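Tip: read the tokens left to right.
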């Protein structure tokens, strides 16, 4: 996702009228799930994609979550395979249409291809959402989010493993709704975890498990959970630990 497209998305006006109610009344207070708010416009690239492939953008007949532990291995395999099957594309002069059968593509191609593959495997569309955030380099980024009974997990082309949304270093902007992929909502800042502790834990988790081709998001996620449980009161990872992790992942 390129910065110029993010600027277009960020400047879109809020929609008025009816807001969509997501399954789970306590979602906004559950830090495992993305808290959502006002309705927003879908990315233009997705709208054009849905016009070309309406079968991929059908409304959900019912709202379902997936049993995470039962399907984790399969979802993780899809994420890994498509991360390797699709070659990242350099900045194009003219932005091509979004595609879910990509060999070369941007983050939206990774996300759409993974979503379509999981749809073909029988996963419910209400559990396969698209989300937009700002990556650390201040670029817009789009990922696939799987809604499960254990929280919202992200399939990211920058991560080898699926990882829960709140352990990623993104500033989240908006996501599609379970009812209809063409209707989107803002992602609100969450307040379930003390902000100071959460910031420390996120920083420490990436110190302990840096993002590299061999790093494991699962270990980083487990570290983050344990750190949050202690409200960030954990020792800062030492260079020795970083060296140990490097040796483990080589």
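Filled-in amino acids:
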């Amino acid at each position: 996702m390129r910065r110029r497209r993010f600027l277009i998305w960020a400047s879109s006006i809020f929609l008025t009228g009816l807001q969509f109610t997501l399954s789970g009344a306590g979602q906004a207070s559950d830090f495992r799930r993305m808290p959502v708010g006002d309705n927003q416009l879908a990315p233009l690239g997705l709208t054009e994609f849905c016009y070309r492939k309406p079968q991929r953008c059908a409304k959900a007949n019912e709202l379902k979550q997936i049993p995470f532990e039962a399907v984790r291995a399969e979802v993780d395999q899809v994420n890994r395979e498509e991360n390797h099957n699709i070659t990242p594309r350099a900045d194009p002069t003219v932005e091509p249409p979004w595609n879910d059968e990509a060999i070369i593509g941007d983050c939206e191609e990774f996300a759409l291809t993974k979503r379509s593959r999981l749809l073909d495997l029988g996963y419910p569309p209400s559990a396969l959402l698209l989300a937009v955030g700002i990556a650390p380099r201040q670029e817009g980024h789009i990922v696939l989010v799987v809604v499960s009974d254990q929280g919202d997990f992200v399939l990211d082309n920058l991560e080898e493993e699926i990882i829960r949304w709140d352990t990623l270093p993104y500033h989240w902007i908006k996501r599609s709704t379970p009812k209809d992929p063409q209707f989107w909502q803002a992602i609100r800042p969450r307040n379930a975890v003390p902000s100071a502790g959460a910031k420390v834990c996120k920083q420490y988790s990436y110190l302990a498990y840096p993002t590299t081709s061999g790093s494991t998001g699962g270990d980083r996620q487990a570290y983050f959970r344990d750190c949050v449980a202690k409200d960030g009161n954990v020792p800062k990872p030492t260079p020795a630990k970083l060296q140990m992790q490097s040796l483990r992942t080589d």
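Residues 6-29, 240-247 have pLDDT under 50 and may be disordered. The helical segments are 3-10, 44-52, 68-85, 107-120, 195-208, 217-229, 239-249.
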